[in-house]
Amino acid sequence: ETGVTQTPRHLVMGMTNKKSLKCEQHLGHNAMYWYKQSAKKPLELMFVYSLEERVENNSVPSRFSPECPNSSHLFLHLHTLQPEDSALYLCASSQEPGQEQYFGPGTRLTVT
Amino acid sequence: DAKTTQPPSMDCAEGRAANLPCNHSTISGNEYVYWYRQIHSQGPQYIIHGLKNNETNEMASLIITEDRKSSTLILPHATLRDTAVYYCIVRGGRISGYALNFGKGTSLLVTP
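YS: structure for the whole thing
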């Protein structure tokens, strides 16, 4: 596999479920990002990790919990989500924070 | 980050060059010009970036005017798969923060 991969590609979950989104980058990058993209809205940065340390957390509700066990993997743990959390969740990586970012295909999340 | 202005939409015939303009008249000396694109329902894709000199890679060429107040992204031989929204972003690297401010971009339609 090359580039940035995300699983699952589609996820439907109820408001009481717990699920996790996974991102893996095969580019040897040091920084990883989670973004949310809602319909008709611009990208919203959620979290940034640099060498497995969180360097930015943009006032994201606690029902979203990121985890970065190593520089190649990034998770987004989801629990008790709301319908308005339905969106495309994108993972990206860059060699260093602030440099050009390479995105995964996204996970299309629907909360019912 | 400096503000950018792009036309909302453009058409291009398949096989012809697509020239996408971007104005960034308030760009400062340490800010780079980045181009990304997003094909419908997919993750954004990094295309190219530059500071002063023209740049070329396997995807596109970037022409930056001498005063750096505008630039043009050139797709030399557009294909149907190049139909996407193209975003011009000006940012100064890490000091600009980590989020990519995509704006509204130019919706490019490549026609047969």
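YS: worth flagging: The mean pLDDT of chain A is 92.
IM: good catch. Also Chain A touches chain B at residues 4, 31, 33, 42-43, 45, 48, 55-56, 58, 88, 90, 92, 96-106, 108 (CB under 8 Å).
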